[in-house]
Protein: Pyridoxine/pyridoxamine 5'-phosphate oxidase
Organism: Pseudomonas libanensis
Amino acid sequence: MPLSLAQMRRNYTLNGLLDEAAPDDPLAMFRQWLQQARDTECAPVEANSMMLATVDGDGQPHCRVLLLKGLSDDGFTFFGNYQSDKGLQLAANPNAAMTFFWPGLERQVRIEGQVSRLDSQISDAYFDSRSVASRLGAWASPQSQPLASRAALDLRLAETIKRFVGQAVPRPQHWGGYCLRPARLEFWQGRADRLHDRLDYRLQNGEWCRRRLAP
């Protein structure tokens, strides 16, 4: 029996997004929206969750959920396995996109730019802040590679625990941080009757230029 989704819809009525209320700096606006997503009772459990889209060598896009772990004037920081599918895709093509969706606030932010690896010292510091179990997992999991079974992963973890018993767990060289330096941010605020607000910021000659897009 086919699954009917045609009548699933929601009318967005919480807020509007007016040009005069938007700052010139989109990163300042993103910080404000992220803080509001963290503070509101309607926010997802992890307000820093995002979709990261990359493209492989055949032009096939790939998308997955990650967690944003930092934001500075340089860009948006996240961490992962350099040898994973996303790591290999980013090594071949640094262009990527992020999407944040906060349904409780009826808001979405789309970000596009280029990704580069973080300095090893930054990756070391973040890795050391993780739980011991997470650090061991980074060593044990050959991310994106085929596994014979769940038991095979459990065996790899057991061997990793034995390897590092009684000592600190260092960051593996195949694991570390990335920074997406934004060239475009689009802020979307849901509005009634699908006439949503969209403010689009693009970096041009080192300056942010803002324009409104039709919904």
Observations:
- The helical segments are 26-39, 85-92, 120-129, 132-140, 150-163.
- The beta strands are 49-55, 61-67, 70-71, 76-81, 95-102, 107-117, 175-189, 197-204, 207-212.
